[in-house]
User: What shape does this take?
Amino acid sequence: MSLDSLDLLKMIAPPTASPCETGGEQGWTEAERILGLALPRDYKRLIAAYGTGSFDDFLWVLNPFAGNRFLNLMGRKDMTLDAYESAWELIPEQRSFLAHLRAGDLLAWGITDNGDEMYWRTSGAPDGWPTVLYESRGPLYEVHELPVTGFLARLLTGELQTEVFPADFLEERERRFVPLG
Assistant: This one.
């Protein structure tokens, strides 16, 4: 029997015994109502297992139940769009990215301490949404045909290579999840 991506991720970077801000069935219903779309099942399972926090003190998964507005999935959506709205004239190469944000084609699910962003491309069924990485200070982006947990598991094992994140991100020997708080 093979492990699913979340089980593999738990082996790579175990969650805390008492995750914070995990929501519940009613919370997910409300979050999806506010967003106007269903969210991927693997993402819901990830939040239930890990709550709010970061992988290796670098990669933060946004959480609809996070009290911190910078880590809240819904709050971050508006913040990101506002930031790109004000910057798009200064950085013309980001105009196409902004157009996708405005159209609702992209929804942020993660950020890094460097300001890099991880998005879902929200076309099709939620469980099939790919991950789009976007560089913080430039036009570089990558599309990975992986759900959140698959992306994280492959990234943290070194199986997935990216030019968006700094090379030294994966140099640590032991992966870890750091809960907020």
User: Anything to note?
Assistant: The beta strands are 53-55, 59-61, 106-112, 117-121, 131-134, 141-144, 177-179. The longest helix spans residues 73-87. The CA atoms of residues 4 and 47 lie 16 Å apart. The chain has one domain: 5-14+22-165.
